[in-house]
Design brief:
The complex is a heterotrimer of chains A (320), B (144) and C (555).
Chain A lengths: L2 H9 L3 H13 L1 H11 L8 E6 L5 H15 L4 E7 L8 E3 L14 E7 L4 H17 L5 E6 L3 H8 L3 E6 L5 H7 L2 H4 L2 E4 L7 H15 L13 E3 L8 H18 L1 H30 L2 H11 L5 H14 L1
Parallel strand pairs in A: 1-5, 1-6, 2-4, 2-5, 6-7, 7-8
Helix pairs in contact in A: 1-2, 2-3, 2-5, 3-5, 4-10, 5-6, 5-11, 7-9, 12-13
Chain B lengths: L19 E7 L6 H12 L3 E9 L1 H11 L3 E6 L4 H14 L6 E5 L3 H9 L4 E3 L5 H13 L1
Parallel strand pairs in B: 1-2, 1-3, 3-4, 4-5
Chain C lengths: L1 H6 L1 H20 L45 E2 L8 H13 L4 E5 L2 H4 L23 H7 L9 E5 L4 H14 L8 E4 L4 H7 L6 H18 L3 E2 L1 E4 L1 H5 L4 H21 L4 H4 L3 E7 L3 H22 L12 E5 L11 H15 L4 E3 L12 H17 L13 H24 L4 H10 L2 H18 L27 H16 L2 H16 L6 H9 L4 H12 L9
Parallel strand pairs in C: 1-9, 2-3, 3-4, 4-5, 6-7, 7-8, 8-9
Helix pairs in contact in C: 3-5, 6-20, 10-12, 10-15, 10-16, 12-13, 12-15, 13-14, 15-16, 19-20, 19-21
The chains are: A alpha/beta (320), B alpha/beta (144), C alpha/beta (555).
Chain lengths: 320, 144, 555
């Protein structure tokens, strides 16, 4: 079946077809491009929520609960993309997020897709915007993206959402870690999960302090001070308040025009990523040509610096 | 990634793409040692395992199969329920209009293996199956 | 130990005093009517080597001064399937043959708190044990049996308080005083989250139910063992021996802390705690594990929990051979495996033993295979002579080293749990359940083992070495679907006949009591089951307050 037909089926609520579209996006290539081509013009209306934090912080459970709260509020369905790491050695992965979302997993309006990072973080950075676009284009709103906030790419992915939620837990210096990982800059909303535990208020205070220290409001720009919410994901307490904040942030984004800026930034981010990928691909291919191998030999025999060789290769590539 | 591909047949399974396999247990039985071992075996063979774990219903598994675009469903069976539960999964797959194999792992008496195969189970893996056996069974079932 | 003892003269004197103490204790006991000599007629002493002596703190060499010289271990065979009436027939046969202990296995729906007519129960009713939906089934199960004169073991965890309530109600209806009820209910919920996965509610409300039962039995049923702390299932799930040992004892400590926190005195309940271990194939490791279990439990009960009564310090345990070690290939080989495991249990000083049937990897045991299993432990008990001498391996360098090593490894795990719980093992166990520590550790160990088998580094006879083509089908026991139909009709009849208004009132009280953690759940549960409320209805009445538990996927 050609891609446009699959896309039509997906728009009509055929979940199998949507599942297949996401596979095509993930695989990239011609079919993946085709999916992007069809979905991009009609996408752009869904609110994209990014959710990240350290492993074990309870992200999947919060995502599931948040999707449930969003589902109650939204007439369109809720799309979720849950990302787990692939094994760097074998490329395989164990994707276990679905079972932590038992609240919503079988609801009519919820669509949950698990994605593995598949080794190259560059690939992930390309696949995720594609997946968001498809879910958006077939009508899911909001779309929630859950990533482990450990690598830069994962943080970037969460950070390019319209609303970014950063989850920390009491103790273990999570708040400090979040700061180091650069999560503080991208957070629109903080969640202290496992709030029933000792140290929860300390975590809250640490975050407040770091926000105060980092606050350099630009008088020419509208400011949003990230609220800090306390949740216990396992029993659902604090989730409704979290959803309220997501909605409030969404309104703020719209009212201030910040939304447009973020989306333009996301498009730019994605296009630059594509440029890197395409150029890199072409360049690597060129590097394996006769000319490329000759240049490599010169580098290896110390006749030519690697930079000079690369520049020569690219110059020829651009001419051709 | 197969950027070279010019196919427009979206059902094709290009080489080098990881298989996506759902692993679950139906029914009440909670013995998941085997399921977990197989999950790791498959991961280490480059498979993306969508792990649903214990006490799943056929409906939940079908939902996952659709949304995750899974290539196969693997069920672990520990007690006597296999003759009732495994064929129900096959029926559910058919009803949903999906074309993916259902593979059963566990201690299954020979007579029952034949009955399961007659009822549409693509492969039955017994105890002591090696990683290679498991991966081969998944690949063969998919290509059939 | 030996070297140190000989360098310190006072240690020698102490040992002398301890030995005399043991000799006196030994002399005060009645011995079995047996000739304590070898097959060739060589007389043997009851004990060789040094202290601490059997029956003396920390009990490494045994919990009693005479051990098997007084009484062999109890040969407890766990069985049961089909309807309550079927099992009742078996019970009566057993009692006629002179048995006094009844051991009950429940089917999977009962174990999970589901009625036979639940969608989840399909295909599993009466298969792996007896199906109990209402008090009426329980009455059939124990019909014409004097509950005051038997000891009943019930292997159930999640819905344990409901089944316990039914047992108490049967006693009441047949005019047996509660204080006369003797037996054990497994009721060990921690290992369910860690290994067997037969949980219903989240950990904290489940522990409340357990402490309620501990309180209730302490006050009303002094001969009842309210918890049997079970490592068996942890091992079956793939743990190492040291993990089985450490997780089980840590769970024990956690129950002790929970009971103390609930206001009980340690010596009021600890003497009625018992344990249940696995006996696997690595012979010396298993023996070391059993010996270390006694020593660790005694030390912790005395030093950390301040037990004064020596009985609180005794780690008395039931042992079952490792089901997971049985192979479907060449199943007769399993008889040899079971014999070795049974021997390890005996040399490890177990109080009771279940030997698996060789075909259990494939199906429920047949009459023949169950008999061979029993015969296997009888051969160990009566033909090998290992019961003539107490702790016959004690003092052997490898065995003592292994015992120390098992203890050391367990202590490392306790330290970790203690840190996770900020100085509380109970909190550490809760945390370890929530953060996936236990299941993760067990899955790692299990995968390590399987990879060894896969790579051929670890030989399993008949599986990855010494294989034969076709092993031939065994004569397997099959259960027909009639049981299920019969049970469904029974349940329907009971539901028709009961006063549904009374059921509603009783269930509402269960829910109300569940909301108040200061109320003991047992009285409301007993009242509810008496109205013929079903097991699942009672489960749901509490679930509305307690919630359900969903495992975090740690693979």
């Amino acid at each position: 079946m050609p891609v446009p037909d699959v896309f039509e089926l997906a728009r009509n609520g055929e979940r199998r077809a949507l599942g297949r579209l996401l596979t095509l996006v993930e695989r990239g290539g011609v079919n993946g491009d085709k999916v992007a081509e069809i979905s991009h013009p009609i996408a752009g209306s869904s609110h994209v929520v990014g959710l990240t934090g350290a492993p074990g912080a309870g992200k999947s459970t919060i995502t599931g609960r948040l999707a449930a709260a969003a589902g109650l509020a939204s007439e369109s369905g809720v799309g979720v993309v849950a990302i787990d790491p692939s094994s760097p050695i074998t490329g395989g992965a164990i994707l276990g997020d679905r079972i932590r979302m038992d609240e919503v997993i079988d609801r009519e309006g919820t669509f949950v897709r698990s994605m593995a990072t598949r080794g190259s973080s560059g690939g992930l950075a390309l696949a995720v915007p594609g997946a968001i676009r498809v879910l958006d284009a077939v009508g899911y709103d909001p779309v929630i993206i859950e990533t482990v906030g450990v690598g830069q790419v994962e943080v970037d992915i969460a950070g390019t959402a319209d609303t970014t939620i950063v989850v920390v837990t009491p103790g273990w210096g999570d708040a400090v870690q979040a700061n180091k990982a650069g999560l503080l800059e991208v957070a629109d909303i903080f969640v202290v999960n496992k709030a029933e535990r000792p140290g929860a208020s300390d975590a809250r205070r640490d975050l407040e302090l770091m926000l105060d220290l980092g606050a350099h409001p630009d008088p020419n720009k509208p400011t949003w001070r990230a609220p800090i919410l306390m949740t216990t994901a396992t029993d659902g307490s604090g989730i409704d308040e979290l959803w309220d904040q997501v909605v409030a942030h969404r309104s703020w984004l719209t009212e201030t025009g910040e939304l447009l800026g973020r989306r333009q930034n996301r498009d730019r981010f994605e296009m630059l990523g594509r440029v890197d990928e395409l150029l890199g691909g072409l360049g690597r291919k060129r590097a394996e040509s006769e000319q490329g191998l000759a240049l490599l030999a010169d580098v290896q025999s110390r006749k030519l610096s690697p930079t000079a060789a690369a520049a020569e290769l690219l110059a020829d590539l651009l001419e051709s | 990634m197969s950027t070279e591909s010019t196919t427009t047949d979206v059902a094709a399974q290009p080489d080098g793409e990881p298989l996506r396999v759902i692993l679950a247990k139906l029914g009440l039985d909670g013995h998941d040692r085997g399921l977990k071992v197989v999950a790791r075996m498959l991961r280490d063979a480059g498979v993306e395992v969508i792990y649903l774990g214990i006490r799943q219903t056929t409906a939940t598994i079908i939902n996952a199969a659709e949304q995750e675009d899974a290539d196969a469903i693997g069920l672990s069976m520990h007690n006597a329920g296999h003759l009732t539960l495994a064929p129900r999964m096959v029926e559910a797959v058919k009803e949903a209009g999906l074309d993916i194999p259902v593979i059963v792992g566990g201690i299954i008496p020979d007579d029952d293996v034949i009955e399961l195969q007659n009822k549409g189970i693509a492969a039955v893996l017994g105890p002591g199956a090696s990683t290679d056996d498991v991966v081969a069974a998944v690949r063969t079932s998919i290509s059939n | 130990m030996t070297a140190e003892a000989s360098q310190d003269p006072t240690a020698n004197e102490d040992d002398q005093a301890a030995r005399e103490q043991w000799e006196n204790a030994y002399a005060a006991q009645t011995l079995r009517d047996a000739d304590f000599e070898t097959m060739s007629g060589v007389p043997v002493d009851p004990l060789y080597g040094e202290g601490p002596y059997p029956g003396q703190y920390p009990f490494t060499r045994g919990v009693y001064p005479t051990m098997y010289r007084s009484r062999l271990w109890t040969m407890r065979m766990f069985a049961g399937f089909g309807t309550a009436e079927d099992t009742n027939g078996r019970f009566k046969e057993l009692l006629r043959a002179g048995g006094t202990g009844l051991s009950t296995a429940f089917d999977m729906p009962t174990l999970m708190g589901r009625d036979s007519d639940s969608e989840w129960a399909l295909g599993e009713v009466g298969r792996a044990g007896v199906a109990i939906d209402t008090l009426s089934d329980m009455e059939d199960l124990f019909a014409d049996i004097d509950l005051g004169g038997v000891s009943t073991s019930m292997t159930i965890n999640g819905p344990a308080p409901i089944i316990m309530a039914m047992y108490i109600a049967v006693a009441e209806k047949t005019g047996v005083e509660r204080s006369k009820l003797a037996g054990t209910i497994q009721n060990d919920i921690f290992k369910e989250y860690q290994a067997q996965k037969e949980y219903i509610y989240p950990p904290r409300p489940s522990v409340r139910l357990i402490t309620d039962m501990m309180k209730y039995t302490s006050a009303e049923m002094p001969k009842w063992h309210p918890v049997s702390i079970s490592g068996y299932h942890i091992r079956e799930a793939g743990s190492t021996a040291a993990q089985e040992l450490a997780f089980t004892l840590a769970n024990g400590f956690a129950y002790v802390e929970a009971a103390i926190a609930a206001g009980l005195d340690v010596d009021d309940f600890a003497p009625r705690l018992s344990f249940f271990f696995n006996s696997h194939l690595d012979f010396f490791e298993e023996i070391g594990k059993f010996r270390a279990a006694r020593r660790i439990w005694a030390k912790w009960m005395k030093e950390r929990y301040g037990a004064k009564n020596e009985k609180s310090m005794l780690c008395r345990f039931h042992t079952q051979t490792a089901g997971v070690s049985l192979t479907a290939q060449q199943p007769e080989n399993n008889i040899a495996r079971v014999a070795i495991q049974a021997l390890a249990g005996a040399l490890g000083g177990t109080q009771s033993l279940h030997t698996d049937a060789y075909d259990e990897a494939m199906a429920l045991p047949t009459e023949k295979s169950a008999r061979v299993a029993l015969r296997t432990q009888q051969i160990v008990a009566h033909e090998t002579g290992v019961t003539n001498v107490i702790d016959p391996l004690g003092g052997a360098p490898y065995v003592e080293w292994m015992t120390d090593e098992m203890e050391r490894r367990a202590e490392e795990i306790f330290e970790h749990l203690d840190a996770m719980g900020n100085g509380s093992i109970l909190e550490g166990v809760y945390e370890g359940i929530e953060n996936g520590y236990f299941v993760g550790e067990i899955a790692d160990a299990s995968y390590r083992f399987e990879r060894g088998v896969n790579a051929g580094r670890r030989i399993i006879v008949g599986v990855n070495e010494f294989t034969e083509g076709d092993d031939g089908e065994q004569n397997l026991l099959k259960i027909d679907a009639e049981t299920e139909d019969y049970q469904l009709k029974r349940l329907e009849t009971v539901k028709q006949a009961r006063d549904s208004a009374a059921v509603d009132v009783a269930l509402a009280r269960v829910t109300a009591d569940a909301q108040d953690p200061t109320v003991n759940m047992m009285p409301a549960l007993i009242d509810a089951v008496k109205t013929m409320a079903t097991e699942e209805e009672v489960v749901m009445a509490m679930e509305s307050v307690f919630g359900t538990y969903v495992e975090q996927a740690i693979v």
